[in-house]
Request: fold
Amino acid sequence: MTATLLWQWLIQKLAGLSTKAAAEKANLPFALETVYHLGRKLRRGLARLRTLLCREQAPPASAQADPVLQSMEHLHSAFPCEACPPAAFQLGFQVPFLG
Reply:
């Protein structure tokens, strides 16, 4: 899974699509079970991601109820000029995005 593919999927999730619909819209070349597995892995690593993002800047106000989506908004606001915030995260912090 490349950071770009992951971000394309997350953008669709932020737009309100379900995991399955977001994967289809992002045209992910994986089985749906793989996408669900990546979602669970992302959710398990949120504490680490949020801690690192908070070193960069405070989280923005969010209307999202889901912590994953709140974190993705935070990621986007921490790297606003980047085409792929997960790649910028990895480059900036020198750690893998999904742990």
About this structure: The chain has a mean pLDDT of 95. The two ends are 13 Å apart (CA to CA). The chain has one domain: 3-93. Helices lie at 3-14, 19-25, 32-44, 46-56, 67-78, 85-93.
